[in-house]
Amino acid sequence: GLPKTLVATLVAFVVGYVTIGWLLKYLRTRSYLPFVVYRVALGSLVLILLATGVLDSAVSA
């Protein structure tokens, strides 16, 4: 119902706000390198899985 939706929306807002604040503070004093390495590694893994047929690039509706 509506009360549960409002509570869930409020919780998501608060958690998102706190998380973004923490991330911005973290990035002021640290490098982006771990994020870059993570993204390159994950992207490479996805490309390998697509090339080997483990993942299917088709979107099911």
Helix content: over 70%
Structural class: mainly alpha
Shape: flat
β-strand percent reads under 5%
**Can you count the beta strands?**
0
- Mean pLDDT equals 93
Low-confidence stretches: none
- Secondary-structure element sequence? HH
Structural domain count = 2
Biggest sheet character = none
Please explain how this structure is put together.
This protein has 61 residues and is mainly alpha-helical. The protein folds into two domains: 1-30; 32-61, no CATH class. The protein is built from two helices and no strands. The protein has helices spanning 2-29, 33-51. The radius of gyration is 18 Å and the shape is flat. The chain starts with a helix and ends in a 10-residue tail after the last helix. The relative contact order is 0.06. The mean pLDDT is 93.
